[in-house]
Design a protein that fits this description.
The chain is an alpha/beta fold. It has nine helices and 21 strands. The chain has helices at residues 16-27, 38-42, 50-56, 95-102, 122-128, 165-187, 212-215, 224-233, 316-321, and strands spanning 2-3, 8-13, 32-36, 44-45, 48-49, 60-63, 82-87, 106-110, 118-119, 133-140, 150-157, 192-193, 206-207, 241-245, 248-258, 272-275, 280-284, 287-296, 312-313, 328-329, 332-333. The strands form six sheets. The protein has a seven-stranded mixed sheet with strand order 6-3-2-7-8-10-11. The chain has a six-stranded antiparallel sheet with strand order 16-17-18-15-14-19. A hairpin with a 2-residue loop joins β4 (44-45) and β5. 32% of the residues are buried.
């Protein structure tokens, strides 16, 4: 497969990397077009929606629900030497769409190792599994999910200080942006042969997207490390893991394990055994859990309302409900 020169860039999807690439393309005087979805256009990026950003920057964009049935893609066939790049595009592309509109050269930026970590919810899964390996992967899109040939990749390590999704996002955004700019620059002025690496299917795994409101209920019967990882996985920039306190929903963030106070029985899990100046000490299996942020559903800090001996707990029904899979469409949650 040959690629280049690149005279036009078409970005599909949303997110911070898309925003940064759009601004970079403008600075390089490379014509840029964005194809996005209703869900992505409403997404807040550094305080403003993607739609508002594109309008303010006077960047051409198209907002569509179903890319496979859109009658507005004919302009793609008129573009000179285009580079098509998906950044979290919410559509599953049909084979004929990839051929007719993208000349079988639709690329996707993927932020985890392939084929082992296909799917979405990447950083939350990364925290849950204790995985520090980072990847910037560029692969071709086919009619399946993250199964196309790999074109280029770069592996790196997230610092051990990364604990919350926001920590991973800040690093991956810069890594992915630089990775993609390097790729574009290498192919911008001349045509070159692109080496394709087939993904070995026997090494593959797929992880679905996660939705905090549905999946973020804390199971206090889990092991201490699993509880800590779980709460961290739903921390900033997400709304936070949830549980009940005195039959009211509360949001828990900013936690760490504490092994100094002794070993606790599983029946003690969730009990608040001490209050510090601005933190709570909670029993979990084998040790304590320090909670530095706890809010009600309206975002109010409820630290002063909590008493020693109160118990954080999540009913079995909510735990079972949290195992359900959320389904997202280009418009949002189904």
């Amino acid at each position: 497969m040959k690629l280049g020169p690149i005279d036009t860039i078409i970005l599909l999807g949303g997110g911070l990397v898309l925003k940064k690439l759009a601004l970079w393309s403008k600075s390089q005087k490379i014509p840029i077009h964005i194809i996005t979805s209703p869900r992505h256009s409403k997404e807040l990026l550094e305080g403003e929606s993607l739609k508002k950003f594109l309008e303010n920057e006077k960047i051409n964009y198209l907002e569509i629900d179903d890319i496979n049935s859109s009658s507005n893609l004919n302009f793609l066939n008129e573009l000179k030497n285009p580079f098509y790049l998906s950044l979290g595009a919410p559509w599953i592309f049909k084979k004929e769409t990839i051929y007719n509109y993208f000349n079988n050269q639709l690329f996707n930026s993927h932020g985890t190792r392939l084929p082992q970590n296909r799917g979405g919810g990447g950083f939350s899964w990364q925290i849950l599994t204790g995985n520090r390996f980072g990847f910037s992967v560029l692969h071709l899109i086919d009619e399946n999910l993250d199964t196309g040939d790999i074109i280029q990749f770069e592996e790196f390590l997230y610092p051990a200080t990364c604990r919350k999704p926001i920590d991973y996002i800040e690093i991956s955004t810069e890594k992915d942006f630089n990775f993609l700019v390097d790729f574009i620059n290498k192919n911008k002025t001349t045509q070159s042969e692109i080496i394709r690496i087939t993904q070995p299917e026997y090494l593959s795994s797929y992880w679905p997207r996660i939705y905090t409101d549905l999946n973020g209920w804390i199971d206090w019967s889990n092991e201490s490390t699993e509880i800590e990882q779980f709460i961290c996985a739903f921390d900033n920039p997400y709304p936070g893991a949830k549980t009940l306190l005195n039959n009211e929903t509360v949001i828990v963030k900013n936690v760490s394990l504490n092994k100094q106070d002794g070993i606790f029985h599983s029946f003690q899990s969730g009990l608040i055994y001490r209050k510090g100046k601005d933190w709570l000490c909670v029993c979990v299996k084998g040790c304590g859990l320090i909670i530095e942020e706890i809010y009600d559903e309206k975002g109010n800090n409820i630290f002063d309302k909590i008493k020693i001996g109160d118990r954080l707990h999540t009913p079995t029904q909510l735990i079972q409900e949290s195992k359900k899979r959320p389904i997202f469409t280009p418009k949002g949650l189904r």
